[in-house]
Amino acid sequence: MKFSLSPSLGGRLAPSPTLYVNERVRQMWAMGETVYHLGFGESRFPAHPKVVNALVEHASRQSYLPSTGIPELRQAVADFHSRQLGSEVSADRVIVAPGSKALLFAFQMATAGATILPTPSWVSYEPQSRLFNRSVLRIEATPQDCHRLHPDRLRRILNTSRHEQHLLILNSPSNPTGQMFGPGLLAEVAEICRQYKVLVLSDEIYGLTAYGREHVSISRYYPEGTVVLGGMSKHLSLGGWRLGTAIVPQGEGGKELLQAAAKVGSELWSSASAPVQYAAVTAYSEDADLAAYIEKCTALHGARTRYLWRGLCELDVSCAEPVGGFYLFPNFDHWRENLAQRGVLTSVDLARYLLDEWQIATLPGKDFGTPETELSLRLSTSYIDLETDEKSAAMIELADSATDEEALLQDHHPGMNEVLARFQKFLTTL
Ligand SMILES: Cc1ncc(COP(=O)(O)O)c(C=O)c1O
To answer: In the list 139, 200, 253, 417, which could disulfide-bond 226, CB 3.0-4.6 Å?
Structure first.
C-alpha cells in the first residue's frame, strides 16, 4: 500500500548525503574492510562511575515526570549554570528534555518568524526549520577567512528581511568548525539582536569542551533575548542518555517561551526519562571528581583534534585552528582543478571520493549549509582510535600517565596517523 507523505517531509526534506557516508561505512565494515571514520561526532569516553552509580540507584523510577523536569534537577541545572555563566539563574527558568535537539525543535516549533543561521552550521537546525515551514536565512561566509561570522551581514539580512520576527541560532564552540565566538563579536551580535528584537537560541552543548580559550555565552551581553541550550552529550559523553537543558530569559517573555516549549514537550515526549533525570542531578552537582574528569576528556579531545589540524596544516590544507569540541572544517578549494579532473566538483563528490578511494569517512560541507561547489569537509576526531569501549577506556588511562601530548598521539593513535598518511598520499596524487 502507498500513502501520501506530509509535504514538509516528502517534498522539502531531501535525504542527506550524510546517510550515504554512514551507510557506506557500515557496508564496508560488514565486509571486513578498514574505514577511518572521521564522520562520527560522538564523544566516546566512558561514562563517569559516579553518574553511572546514580543511574543504577534510580533505575526503578518508573513514573512519568513533569514535562519541564523534576524540581531537583531544574535546581541543579540552574546552580550549575549560575557557576558557569557567572550570573544568577533560578530553577523556574530551566527546562529539561530528551536531548538539546528536542529542545531546539520545541523552540523552533513554538515561535513565529524566520530562522537565521550562520554558515556553516550544525546539520539539524535547517531541516528542523523546514519541518515547520520556517524560512531559513543564511549569513554568508567564505573559507577565505575561515567562515568568520560578519555582524554587518547579519544586519543586512535583518534590514532587508520581510519577516516580522527572527530567531538566530548560534553554536559556540561550533560543530562543524571547532571555532568559538569571542567576547567582542558576541557583544556586537548582541547589540544588533537587541536592536531588531531577535530571539537567540545559543547552542552551548560544547561549552565545556572548550580547550583553546574560555567559552563565553552571548547571554552575558543579551540576557533578555537569549535561550541557552546545553546537555550531557558532549562533555560527559552521555549522548545516548538523552538529556538536554535550556535556560530561558528572566521575566514574562522567558516564562512564556518556557511554557510554549513545555507544551510541545508534553505532546511529543511527555518528559525526559525518569532514571536519567535523577542521575543528572548528580551530573550537574558541584563535584571535584566530575569536574576533573570533564577537564581530562576535554584536554584529550583538544590534543587529538589539534594533532589532526597540525598534520593537515603541514600538508597546506587550509583549516581554522580548533579551540573547542572535536571538529575541523578544512577546505580543499586549492586543489579544485585537479579534483575536477577526477570528477570531484562538489563537497559531496569529495566526501565520496575520499571514502571510496582512500577509506576516509568525512561529511560534506554542503550538509552544513556551505555552497555545493565549496570543497569543505567536516572532520570529527571523536571516534578514530576510540572505536570500542575498551579502546576509549584505555586511552583515558594512557592520558593519565602521559607526560608528552605529542608522544601520546604518535605512539597510541595508529588510525589518526594513518589518516594523515593517506591525506598526504591523496594530495600528492593530485
Ligand atoms: C551542535 C549540536 N547541537 C546539538 C546537538 C544535539 O545534542 P543532544 O544529544 O543534546 O540532542 C549536537 C549533537 O551532535 C550538536 O553537535
So the answer is: 200
Question: Rounded to whole angstroms, what are the CA distances from 275 to 50, 100, 208, 261, 272?
Answer: 14, 18, 24, 22, 9
How many angstroms separate the CA atoms of 325 and 264, rounded? 29
* Mean pLDDT, range 343-347, rounded to an integer: 97
CA neighbor of 167 nearest in space, from 221, 128, 217: 128
Q: DSSP string covering 135-194, please?
A: -EEEE---GGGTT---HHHHHHHHHH---S-EEEEEESS-TTT-----HHHHHHHHHHHH
Distance CA 385, CA 391 (A): 7
Phi and psi at residue 168, in whole multiples of 5°?
-105, 125
φ/ψ region of 186 (left if φ > 0, alpha if ψ in -120 to 50, else beta) reads alpha
Q: Given the CA of residue 42, which atom of ligand 1 is nearest to it?
A: 14
How are beta strands 94-97 and 244-247 bridged, if at all? antiparallel
Instruction: Determine the pLDDT at residue 402.
Output: 76
Lowest average pLDDT, out of 2-11, 286-295, 315-324, goes to 2-11
Residue 140, phi then psi, degrees to nearest 5: -65, 145
Domain covering 51-285 in this structure, CATH number = 3.40.640.10
pLDDT tens digits, 97-150: 999 999 999 999 999 999 999 999 999 999 999 988 999 999 999 999 999 999
CB 327 within 8 A of CB 176: yes
CATH architecture of 7-46+289-428: Alpha-Beta Complex (3.90)
Q: Residue 10's pLDDT is what?
A: 55
Which atom in ligand 1 lies closest to the alpha carbon of residue 230? 10
Ligand 1 midpoint to CA 100 (Å): 6
Whether the bond between 118 and the residue before it is cis, its omega within 30 degrees of 0, is no
Contact 305, 328 (CB under 8 A): yes
* Cα 319 to middle of ligand 1, angstroms: 23
Q: Any residues with Cβ below 6 Å from ligand 1, and which?
A: 41, 99-101, 122, 171, 175, 203, 205, 231, 233, 239, 244
Predicted confidence (pLDDT) per residue in 376-388, tens digit: 999 999 999 998 9
Domain with CATH 3.90.1150.10 in the chain: 7-46+289-428
